[in-house]
TrEMBL record:
Belongs to the exbB/tolQ family. One of its GO terms (biological process) is protein import. This is MotA/TolQ/ExbB proton channel family protein. PANTHER family: MOTA_TOLQ_EXBB PROTON CHANNEL DOMAIN-CONTAINING PROTEIN, PROTEIN TOLQ. The keyword Transport applies. Keywords: Cell membrane, Membrane, Protein transport, Transmembrane, Transmembrane helix, Transport. Pfam families: MotA_ExbB. Residues 68-186 form the MotA/TolQ/ExbB proton channel domain. The chain crosses the membrane at residues 12-31, 106-130, 150-171. It is a multi-pass membrane protein. It is found in: Cell membrane; Membrane. Coiled coil: none annotated.
Length: 201
């Protein structure tokens, strides 16, 4: 494997770095974007219980805010329980935008790697081809040696595609997951607003 990397030329080392970065980001996102960590079950019920008990304190809202992304959104609503519905919804929307931005962390980088990897592979192949044909003597070119050189250069393209395909799959998966979490948090926050304002009637 090392011999292939050495023969394929310097561009393949850039692809190796890209693959390491992509793998690290995928592992980090898999660990971070777990449902129980983002949208903990029964958290809304606990917040409703706190609201109905009348024991809302800065300490409670602070702990709620640091507990999870859903906690950030619900704590924004909890701080404005005495405000009009529109104010509560605005605070929820503002908190939700911040949470969505946090959940999308590294996804742009992952998408960039998925897009660039095939191009980097193609670039490496072109560089390899240029070097191969530039080093050939027109009068005494060896077809077998030329074919071997071309096959080695094509490793760049193959490696670039091998990086891009799984990276793109995970990028799309994480994007869909973030969108799903944002919708769930919005639904739970709206439900809390409805509970608060129904209790005022």
């Amino acid at each position: 494997m090392l011999a292939i990397f050495q023969a394929a030329g310097w561009p393949i080392w850039l692809l190796l770095i890209a693959s390491i970065v992509a793998t690290a980001l995928i592992i980090e996102r898999l660990m971070t974007l777990r449902r129980a960590r983002i949208v903990p079950p029964n958290l809304l019920d606990e917040v409703v219980r706190v609201y109905r008990s009348g024991s809302i304190t800065p300490d409670i809202t602070g702990k709620l805010e640091t507990s999870s992304p859903l906690g950030v959104v619900l704590s924004a609503a909890l701080r404005n329980v005495n405000a009009p519905r529109e104010v509560m919804k605005e605070s929820i929307e503002e908190a939700g935008n911040g949470v969505a931005h946090t959940l999308e962390r590294f996804l742009t980088t992952l998408g960039t790697i998925a897009t660039l990897a095939p191009l980097m592979g193609l670039f490496g192949t072109v560089v390899g081809m240029i070097e191969i044909f530039g080093s050939q003597n027109p009068a005494g070119a060896n077809p077998a040696q030329l074919a071997h050189g071309i096959s080695v250069a094509l490793y760049n393209t193959g490696f670039g595609l091998a990086i891009a395909m799984p990276t793109l799959v995970f990028y799309r998966h994480f994007r869909a997951l973030v969108d799903s979490y944002v919708i769930q948090m919005e639904q739970q926050a709206v439900r809390f607003v409805d509970i608060v304002h129904d209790s005022r009637k």
